[in-house]
Design a protein that fits this description.
The complex is a heterodimer of chains A (933) and B (88). With 933 residues, chain A is of the alpha+beta class. Chain A is built from 23 helices and 51 strands. Chain A folds into 6 domains: 194 residues, Ubiquitin-like (UB roll) (Roll), CATH 3.10.20; 169 residues, FAD/NAD(P)-binding domain, CATH 3.50.50.60; 67 residues, Orthogonal Bundle (Arc Repressor Mutant, subunit A); 149 residues, Probable tRNA modification gtpase trme, domain 1 (Gyrase A, domain 2, 2-Layer Sandwich); 87 residues, Aminomethyltransferase beta-barrel domains (Alpha-Beta Plaits); 141 residues, Probable tRNA modification gtpase trme, domain 1 (Gyrase A, domain 2). Chain B has a single domain, classed as 2-Layer Sandwich (Folate-binding fold). In chain B, strands 3-4-5-6 form a 4-stranded antiparallel β-sheet, with no helix packed on it. The chains are: A alpha+beta (933), B mainly beta (88).
């Protein structure tokens, strides 16, 4: 095809294609600039590497996929037809090397008959698919992903509402928006082109007495003047529940962004897509959609050929002949409704001649139209059903959906006046609909579907290299449903999702199987309508903001003290302090904590207050352990179970007053514990008699733990009697720090004497400084979470979810008392007495000790011979080197574990056999003497 | 993204809600008198209907549990009301 620029005035832009320097103009797409530069081969077929040219003019383009480098950043697989040319743009073809023109894989086409649809399912089974996989993968795929591509700065999605969201600013969409706006309704009008007008931009016509494009501009101005939102360069790519429409707004100087629009009514005026004709070698460069030729002429001043053959089966497409002739091309028209048949195209790398009904004609371009497919994607995503309309040989929306109207070509209305009328009605129908000068001829289409059994290679899906023969093969192998057809042949997959191929594909299948097109049906339409960048979908939710961590009020102080941070249960917390490896630092801190006094930031620990006349009933019901017998001023340790009897969380509860409790839970379980307390409060008790308040965020807790912790507390002088008589283990008292209440609690997560000091978060920095200062003569030091985990494990103190799993019940942890004796209801009670709960071979928490210096690997499986075969009987849940004991320690869930204490068991880890002896979980100070040391 | 009507806060995005369970289940008690089958029904059996359903949901941002009638096929929400009031 000898396409050339015949008019236009945009500024000249330099770009390159496959390394060749070329010139385009401002206002060009990559496609129009390539055409104007005489480039015919823009890519290679996905499978057979046949040369391919530009077929379409917008989102439907199946062939012209390119990798585009702008400002040093490469984006793969963009459609050349929808990307606007910019200065210095580097464009490369995909699936071709070194260039589309000279692709070294072009020999593959000669083997085409050996690689039909599904060939790799059949061919590479023996001896092993994996032997073929690397070389096939190397040949497959499209663009090249740039691993260094760091997308530009994030743009937060915009949430919006409106009465009417109009998708498509063609004649129907403009009429809808205008009617709705004049009726006083809030309107959003979006269109994926930079200018409003849709088909008015390339069809010569008048509306309300002015040129179509001029009318479109005036309507958009009126809408803006009335305060309505008009978004150009914006694609509505998905409809979701309850009329939520997702938009992709492309912006020039800022990152693209997503809109989430909740509309009372969505008007789909998305137009239609021209279908190819199916005939031998219809994939040759130079075979192009007739409408595309008109668009390149009218919008870009590019005439796509000198000697054009226009073959079409409808009046809308045949109308392109006149403007092309007026631009200087010789146009031969083949009206397929009158009987001519395209026998084939000549020219291996592009159209040189065309034979129609036995008559060969020299031509450099073959324009085709098999009709127009209404763009019903959004209607179908919203679960709308289609019906087949014989008059236009296409599927159109069937039963209307509530909250959605479809108008114009998308609804099968191809005459201009009909489109304006439908749009006007969809917009509410107030006033008079815009008038077109000429009402526009009906489509007058006579179907030209693919004919099975015909000779030659006739392409249905250009992007996936699917031919009529492939559809026949699928039918022979009984993949006759369109969904099977799609998956077996890949027809309608990939970036274009069959915008040009689906109708021809299902029509071919209908003809092969002797069904109607309507009975054959379409595949399911799913978002997105076009490929949308992940950065647009993610918005700001990526990197650190993908799942933001919670931060301690003392983060700066910990950093100053040399803390290395890790995430624990959603909180960023000090893992350890100072230099050295994690292992060394953890041992150092864990050892010193048993000798002097460690300062630990326990602020994330849950602090949920339950108050009111029924508070006692609620906390009692919520807990496995009875709490109503607790005296004010005291704590009790216990479990919360699920209704299935499984341990959900553990923690201590304080009774602050008769009708006031403080439930503490694991940091990661705060929302979950809040939710279950609320659930039972509202579902079981009188919600007016209980209040639940989460005070975790407002308070900070610093713990002093170790033999010298009491001396540190004494030095702080908080006004509390620290004698063991006045403040024994599991008791608390309120003191004063810096004018604020400081609750001193004697609970211990380490097994050593410990004091938790809880103050308002605002007092935390001063308290931390005071503790560090007071601790200086005591060799006090800040301790991270890793050492705490080690200290807990030494004592056999479990971590719910780590040392328990989704089956662990309290009696598996040796806590049988409430189950055996507690009267009255509590969450999970009945489940503790099922047959399964009473099995005698349940996994129970035990300790393990090993010979030698090497700790067991966490996750190692304990094994037993069961019926002659080695079976897992449990696994190691926590394992450490204990610096205090000078030997490895471990916790494990082992079947019948409590009955095996003293026995030696076998373990396996990654094929390696290990041995351990079963011990009670507590390895250090089982009598608890250290609590009061 | 569905819109659910919290009886206290009005229509909000579904991400603000958690499913509580099918409405109408009564916890069998006392534990000592509940048959395994009855307990199993309470824990595991759900009608999971196609079409209209009544469910308990919680609006996480205000903490209130409420009843909602909706359609599992069309996702249309018919009504929602507070557990503290008589049904309309």
């Amino acid at each position: 095809m000898t396409a050339r620029r015949i008019s236009g005035s945009g500024a000249s832009l330099s770009f390159s294609f496959d390394g060749r320097p070329l010139q385009g103009r401002a206002g060009d797409t990559i496609a129009s600039a390539l055409l104007a530069s005489g480039v015919r081969i823009v890519g290679r077929g996905f499978k057979y590497h046949r040369p391919r040219g530009i077929y379409g003019h917008w989102t439907e383009e199946p062939n012209a996929l390119v990798d585009v480098t702008r400002d040093g950043r490469t984006t793969p697989n963009l459609r050349a037809t929808t990307e606007w040319l910019t200065e210095g743009m580097i464009v490369r073809s995909v699936n071709a090397a070194p260039t589309a023109e000279t692709d070294r894989s072009r020999y593959l086409d000669r083997f085409a008959r050996f690689i039909p649809a599904g060939f790799y399912y059949k061919t590479f089974l023996w001896p092993d698919w994996h032997r073929f996989e690397p070389s096939i993968r190397a040949m497959a795929g499209l663009g090249r992903l740039d691993p260094d591509h760091e997308p530009p700065a994030d743009a937060a999605p915009v949430n919006a509402r409106c009465d009417i969201l109009v998708v498509g600013a063609g004649p129907a969409g403009l009429a809808a928006a205008l009617a709705a706006s004049r009726a006083g309704r809030s309107v959003m009008l979006v269109d994926d082109r930079p200018e409003p007008g849709g088909s008015l931009l390339w069809n010569e016509t008048e509306v309300d007495g002015v040129g179509g494009a001029e009318w479109a501009g005036a309507v958009a101005r009126e809408l803006r003047d009335r305060g309505q939102r008009v978004l150009p360069d914006t694609t509505a790519f998905g409809v979701f529940d309850h009329n939520l429409v997702a938009l992709w707004e492309r912006r020039h100087d800022q990152p693209d962004r997503q809109w989430r629009v909740r509309a009372k009514t969505v008007v789909v005026a998305a137009g239609s897509i021209e279908r190819p004709l199916v005939f031998p070698d219809n994939d040759r460069p130079g075979v192009m959609s007739a409408e595309a030729a008109l668009v390149y002429l009218k919008l870009h001043g590019v005439l796509v050929g000198e000697r054009i053959v226009l073959a079409a089966n409808n009046d809308r497409a045949l109308a392109a002949a006149e403007p092309l002739r007026a631009a200087g091309a010789a146009v031969t028209v083949a009206d397929l409704r009158e009987g001519p048949v395209i026998d084939g195209v000549h020219g291996a790398s592009g159209v040189e001649a065309v034979t129609i009904s036995g008559r060969r004609m020299e031509a450099d371009c073959l324009l085709v139209s098999g009709g127009f497919t209404p763009t019903v994607h959004l209607f179908c995503q919203a679960k709308g059903r289609l019906r087949y309309d014989d008059r236009i040989a296409a599927f159109v929306p069937g039963e209307p959906l509530p909250g959605m109207a479809v108008a114009g070509a998308a609804n099968g209305a191809f005459s201009l006046q009909e489109a304006l009328d439908q749009g006007h009605a969809a917009g509410g129908g107030n006033g008079v609909a815009p008038r077109a000068a000429a009402s526009g001829a009906p489509l007058s289409i006579k179907p030209a579907w693919p004919r099975p059994g015909s000779k030659g290679r006739q392409w249905i899906d250009f992007q996936n290299d699917v031919t009529v023969k492939d559809v026949e093969l699928a039918a022979r192998e009984n993949f006759r449903s369109v969904e099977h057809l799609k998956r077996y042949t890949t027809l309608g997959m990939a970036t274009d999702q069959g915008k040009t191929s689906n109708m021809n594909g299902l029509a071919a299948m209908a003809a092969i199987t002797g069904r109607t097109i309507e009975a054959t049906g379409t595949t399911t339409y799913r978002p997105p309508f076009v490929p949308v960048p992940f950065t647009v979908i993610a918005g700001r939710r990526r990197g650190e903001l993908f799942n933001p961590v919670r931060r301690l009020v003392l983060e700066a102080e910990h950093r100053a003290a040399g803390a290395v941070f890790r995430e624990y249960g959603g909180w960023l917390r000090p893992a350890w302090y100072g230099p050295g490896s994690a292992f060394e630092a953890t041992l150092r801190e864990a050892k010193q904590a048993r000798e002097t006094v460690a300062i630990f930031d326990g602020s994330p620990l849950g602090k949920i207050e339950v108050m009111g006349p029924q508070a006692t009933d609620l906390v009692d019901y919520n807990s496995y352990n009875t709490l109503s017998t607790l005296k004010p001023g005291r704590f009790r340790y216990g479990f919360m179970l699920t209704e299935s009897g499984v341990v959900y969380d553990d923690g201590v509860t304080a009774r602050i007053a008769d009708d006031h409790y403080l439930v503490s839970c694991s940091s990661g379980h705060v929302p979950g514990v809040m939710a279950r307390l609320e659930e039972w409060r509202q579902d079981r008790f009188d919600p007016a008699k209980i209040a639940i308040h989460n005070s975790t965020a407002g308070l900070a807790t610093l713990t002093a733990t170790g033999p010298r912790s009491r001396r540190l507390l004494e030095a702080l002088a908080l006004g509390v009697d620290l004698s063991d008589e006045a403040l024994p283990h599991m008791a608390f008292a309120d003191g004063v720090f810096d004018g604020a209440t400081a609750r001193i609690a004697r609970v211990s997560f380490t097994g050593d004497r410990s004091y938790e000091i809880t103050v308002p978060a605002s007092k935390a920095p001063a308290l931390f400084a005071a503790m560090v200062e007071a601790g200086r003569p005591l060799d006090a030091f800040p301790m991270g979470s890793e050492a705490l985990l080690l200290l807990r494990a030494e004592k056999g103190f479990l971590i719910a979810g780590k040392d328990t799993d989704g089956t662990t019940m309290p009696h598996d942890l040796g806590v049988r008392g409430p189950r055996d004796r507690r009267a009255g209801e509590y969450v999970g009670k009945r489940s503790l007495f099922t047959d399964d709960a009473m099995r005698d071979d349940r996994q129970q928490l035990v300790g393990l000790s090993v010979e030698g210096e090497t700790p067991l690997p966490t996750g190692a499986h304990a094994v037993d011979r069961i019926e002659g075969r080695r079976r897992s009987i449990g696994f190691v849940t926590s394992s450490y080197w204990s610096p205090t004991l000078g030997r490895p320690i471990a916790l494990a869930l082992i079947r019948r574990g409590l009955g095996r204490i003293g026995e030696t068991i076998e373990l396996v880890h990654l094929g390696r056999p290990l041995k351990a002896s079963v011990t009670p979980p507590c390895a250090l100070d089982p009598e608890g003497a250290r609590l009061n040391a | 993204m569905q819109l659910f009507p919290c009886p206290f806060c009005g229509p909000r995005d579904e991400t603000e809600f958690h499913f509580g369970g099918e409405a109408g289940k009564v916890r069998p008690e006392p534990a000592g008198e509940v048959s395994p089958a009855a307990w199993s029904r309470y824990l595991h059996r759900n009608a999971n209907p196609r079409g209209a359903t009544r469910e308990i949901w919680v609006h996480l941002t205000c903490g209130e549990f409420f009843l909602m009638e909706r359609d599992t096929v069309t996702h249309a929400v018919a009504a929602s009301w507070s557990l503290r009031k008589e049904e309309p």
